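PROTEIN–LIGAND DATA SHEET

This sheet pairs a single protein chain with one bound small molecule, uridine-5'-diphosphate-glucuronic acid, given as SMILES. Inputs appear in the order they were entered. The predicted three-dimensional arrangement of chain and ligand is reported afterwards as a token string under its own label.
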Amino acid sequence: MKSSHLDNIPSTPGKFKMEKPIYNHRFRWHYSYLAKLTFWSFLFLALIFIFFFKSPSPSSDLSRRSLKTRSWGGPAWEKRVKSSAKIRTKSGFSVLVTGAAGFVGTHVSAALKRRGDGVLGLDNFNDYYDPTLKRARQALLEKSGIFIVEGDINDAVLLKKLFEVVHFTHVMHLAAQAGVRYAMQNPKSYIHSNVAGFVNLLEICKDANPQPAIVWASSSSVYGLNTKVPFSEKDRTDQPASLYAATKKAGEEIAHTYNHIYGLSLTGLRFFTVYGPWGRPDMAYFFFTKDILKGKSIPVFESVNHGTVARDFTYIDDVVKGCLGALDTAEKSTGSGGKKKGAAQLRVFNLGNTSPVAVSDLVSILEKLLKVKAKRRVMKLPRNGDVPFTHANISFAQREFGYKPTTDLQTGMKKFVRWYVSYYGSGKKNDH
Ligand SMILES: O=C(O)[C@H]1O[C@H](OP(=O)(O)OP(=O)(O)OC[C@H]2O[C@@H](n3ccc(=O)[nH]c3=O)[C@H](O)[C@@H]2O)[C@H](O)[C@@H](O)[C@@H]1O
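PREDICTION REPORTED AS:
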């Protein structure tokens, strides 16, 4: 080994060579006493540390779990939350919109903000469909001053914090696991979001002081195998055809319970196949457009004996008006801090278009707008949760808040296609 100037510096152990003790007996006793004292003091401190930080208190345990993974909190974050939720008009609302980066959530958030309400979004940005579309919607909302907190409705600690920072007057609950057919592939996700998540949200709302009024998204699918048309809110909804429908129906029953026990004001909205710009890529009109442009064949369902499959397709702007009408007529919750003080409002409304269109006609409309002939693959309606038709009776919503859809499928699809082409381009090779 090569010698260097480092070889001349004595090593530390050489300073206190054990074979040449420089201390006497008394000194050795003191030394061992000090060592023992240090050891026991250290042990004592360690025990205190373990006691405080590992105690099994459920709430502290919950908050620590959340702290470990959380991407929220802190003064700057709270400031953003408050500013986004700030009411800008005299009689405005402060609304928490769950699922704000979703299709309906984005449109409703923007409409509320436009009229001066305070809006705070919440979304978990899951990948059920392309999350970049959700991020693009988020960017759009951010431009109008709406902050979307990234989190799940199952996160009780986060929700609690949001209600601490803002006294929401209303919750527009649109976060859900959507899609009828996907329920056979991933049943648990429906329970997680539509049942457990909803209950978690209601638990926080009932404890809040003041309790907010809640408007939430149910679905036309709750009518299931109902054959009486048009579908009225009074019709039976005990024959769901998919797990998705069953979880939405469960939501309606859960809403009843929270209204009954805690005095929460709850309004469920049964949406009928909502479509439009910034829509959901998992829905038929959306992926039909994409596949027609690419020259790919599209599966067009028909019912028994070549019967038509039809939907009461409802344009997004009409649905948004319905959502705002429901919010504006929602009465206050009557309870506070988990205690009911009196009977509270409980409502369910159909938000449809009242004019069902056959899926084959939807394809014809798209062909004309896209100027491309579709390659139709006509096939029997699979047994995966789909129902043959939907048709809304909207007289209740009309009576309560003047709901009146004004966009027919032709007009609405034109607007959708215009958006689609501007967002994705009409390039047939474009994949997303
Ligand atoms: O209104 C509702 O309650 C529901 O509307 C839609 O569900 P759905 O009406 O089944 O909408 P799509 O999946 O877009 O289907 C539209 C129509 O196209 C048909 N379809 C679907 C897929 C396909 O490959 N081929 C086809 O012909 C369906 O049978 C249906 O009649 C939404 O996906 C649900 O989240 C929502 O709750």
